[in-house]
Design goal:
By secondary structure, this protein is mainly α. Helices cover 58% and strands 2% of the residues. Strands 1-2 form a two-stranded antiparallel sheet. Helix 5 packs across helix 8 (177-183), helix 11 packs antiparallel against helix 14 and helix 11 packs across helix 16 (336-354). GO terms for molecular function: dGTPase activity.
Length: 426
């Protein structure tokens, strides 16, 4: 158990607010006295964040041809940030009532929002299907020590290397150490991760090993070993809150889109609920369903709000007693009732919306074009790459670095831009 005095010693330090590169001089920053505020500005003004508006959540359904009522990676990230802040508010109030010793470990609202806003920056065109395509394509090049592609790993690469921040040097956006730890969702290198099936392993890319080493510098040797020993299954507390908010947003808001676009009917909800006895812990579920599937738009919004509230308030926090670092030892999870609800919503969306011919067909066609574009760009990079990528290509050393530059460029494309570029293949 982490004791109150140990937590206070941790709070008084500044290791987690450090940056890899030099801090921007105050005259060049409006928020230089507020590290989290500074990071917030850096994230929302980044090119990668802007491009999220052109990356849809579910290709083929929630895209430009479906009208103007659909979610993108950008709106999803905004919703994750809002749910994360709401969860944090619940925990802050609970900590105040209980005089909890973990109160000092809670992130600021801005820090948690930054992690939530940044969590999907590495997603390539066409979501997870595009991720699988790029991973297989990179491995298929047969270049030694190249590795593949993984979206969470690409997020860290963007933040720490590819995006251009205000400082001179190769520091990316130069976020604080705690912010980068918050987006390090899988603390295992691609080369060391377990590979199974067609999906890329959950990991960080080997190109970011020095960055990860820097992030984990404040940890003790034993703490670092324990954190990285379980195949990437550990999380920092901040990352865990982001993950819970992401899970809630996926279940609730993709469900809302499915209902509003008439892709998900009440019968499917009732049929699945009947086969999940654990939902007896959520007695309000039938009344919420009445609202969610109502013909009245205001009632549907109340139903969505009720589902969101149940997940936001259904968070447990505890010390694990495994780490001497409070940011790692403190853990958050859904309560059993909230976990049952989240599992139900996620499964419903998967079965009725995502894993369907309406989505899989367009995904397959788009990824064929993505693969063709990737191969063309690898063969003739100067024909396809943008100016900044050509500059990086000129400075690349060896085949692996050159191939990674091309992959970075293709992965950064929006859905529509990738399709337009593929259309040039002739």
């Amino acid at each position: 158990m982490i004791q109150r005095q140990a937590v206070q010693r941790w709070v008084d330090g500044d290791s987690w607010t450090a940056r890899r590169g030099p801090q921007t001089p105050a005259e060049h920053s409006l928020t230089s006295q507020d590290p989290d505020g500074e990071d917030h500005a850096r994230v929302i003004h980044s090119y990668a964040f802007r491009r999220l508006q052109g990356k849809t959540q579910v290709l083929g359904i929630f895209g430009a041809e479906s009208g103007d009522f659909y979610r993108t990676r950008l709106t999803h990230s905004l919703e994750v940030a809002e749910l994360g802040r709401a969860m944090l508010g619940q925990l802050q109030r609970r900590a105040a009532v209980q005089s909890a010793d973990w109160a000092a470990v809670l992130p600021s609202r801005t820090l948690l929002a930054n992690i939530c806003l940044a969590h999907d920056l590495g997603h390539p065109p066409f979501g997870h299907a595009g991720e699988r395509t790029l991973d297989a394509a990179m491995r298929g090049l047969g270049v030694p020590d190249l590795g593949g592609f993984e979206a969470n790993g690409q997020t860290l690469r963007l933040l720490s290397h590819l995006e251009i921040g205000p400082e001179q040097g190769d520091y990316g956006l130069n976020l604080t150490r705690r912010a980068l730890l918050g987006v390090l969702k899988y603390p295992v290198a691609y080369s060391a991760a377990v590979h199974s099936g067609a999906r890329p392993p959950k990991c960080y890319l080997d190109t970011e090993q020095k960055v990860v080493d820097w992030i984990l510098t404040p940890l003790s040797e034993s703490g670092r070993a324990a954190f990285t020993a379980l195949g990437g299954r550990e999380r920092s507390f901040d990352c865990r809150l982001m993950e819970l908010a992401d899970d809630a947003a996926y279940g609730v808001y993709d469900l809302e889109d499915g209902v509003n676009l008439h892709l998900l009917e009440r019968g499917a909800w009732d049929a699945l609920a009947a086969h999940m006895p654990e939902l007896s812990q959520v007695p309000q579920l039938p009344s919420w369903a009445n609202l969610v599937f109502s013909a009245d738009e205001a009632e549907r919004k109340r139903g969505v709000a009720a589902l969101s509230r149940a997940l936001v308030t259904g968070i447990d926090v505890k010390w694990q007693g495994r780490f001497d670092e409070p940011l790692l030892d403190l853990w958050a999870a859904f309560t059993p009732a909230a976990a049952a609800l989240q599992h139900f919503l996620t499964r419903l969306v998967w079965e009725q919306v995502i894993d369907t011919p309406q989505v899989r067909g367009p995904e397959a066609g788009a990824c064929q074009q993505l693969l063709a574009l990737f191969e063309a760009a690898q063969a003739e990079p100067l024909r396809w790459l943008g100016a900044e990528s050509r500059r990086r290509l000129a400075g690349a050393e060896g085949a692996a670095e050159r191939a990674r530059v091309v992959c970075d460029y293709v992965a950064g494309m929006t859905d529509l831009f990738a399709l337009r570029q593929a259309g040039r293949l002739g």
